[in-house]
Amino acid sequence: MSELNLSRNTIHFAEPLPLQSGAVLSGYDLVIETYGKLNADKSNAVLVCHALNASHHVAGPSPEDPTDIGWWDNMIGPGKPVDTNHFFVIGVNNLGSCFGSTGPMSINPATGKPYGAEFPVVTVEDWVNTQARLADKLGIRKFAAVMGGSLGGMQAMAWAIQFPKRIEHCVVVASTPKLSAQNIAFNEVARNAILSDPDFHGGNYYEHGVVPKRGLRLARMVGHITYLSDDDMAEKFGRELQRPNGESNDYRFSFDVEFEVESYLRHQGDKFSNYFDANTYLLITRALDYFDPARRYDGSLNRALAEVQAKFLVVSFSTDWRFPPNRSREIVESLLSNKSEVTYAEIDAPHGHDAFLLDDARYHNLVRAYFKQMRETQV
Q: What positions belong to coiled-coil segments (predicted)?
């Protein structure tokens, strides 16, 4: 098994970027991490698109912190399902994020201050346009695959629609062709928690030297509930009370932490509020809301996918109630109606939406076999 060959770079783009909102960014940076080696004809590149709170750091230990392991490390690396002995994998931090790419925390060259609330709203389609410019800079004419889970899967789908000739395979995991009203509602509750935090200051909290941590904590708690299945929560926590050794297992009759699941959610919220940016959370959840490639085709997903040329792998998980299997089947049915080549798998896993990040032999073996076949077809 060879080394991961991790490399991190910040790429500057001086050419103005028109956004779907009508705003224009005069220039911007994207932080990327690459793994493996690009072959001579640059045909083995795989773009990995991240979900809400992830980043360019996809696999292996971070160069700055060896305890910080990439968010999809069980999927990508030497000998793993997406084998970096054969594929050159690119992780990119999306525009508007808070992990080095240009976003609300960045300095606005027009004012000399952080963009804050002035950073424009971005969409999935905007991200894909920046990723295409990145491919141009790297000399990659066509990706062997673009893949992602959840919001990352939306980006992969948008790639197949926006740049049909530049993507050979599209891997969409635990995703959806558009959010349901319920999903938009969850996002709105989370955003409102941030917007109503007194430390938010209309998005310009950087100038006040504060962070809207209370809002971020609540936003993360709401989101995290939707990532887990009821069965998974029951197995992990049940109705167990949190009690130190020796303390009575009776109710305290208080509004402090009583149940273990409460302690877990508060821990997740606290951790999130220490590393994520509130403005970025608002931007990315709104990008999730807006994604609907069928909208410009009078609601027809069949028509939206009519021009795609990529072969698809679509994966869903039985207990994912955030993006349930029937939403993945919508994608599959539209692809089949267009006579596109598609492989679909519904994995019976107990972990809810988070299953796409976790170890599951059936899921990983499927992806491994798909990429192995892809590699053999290229030879």
A: none
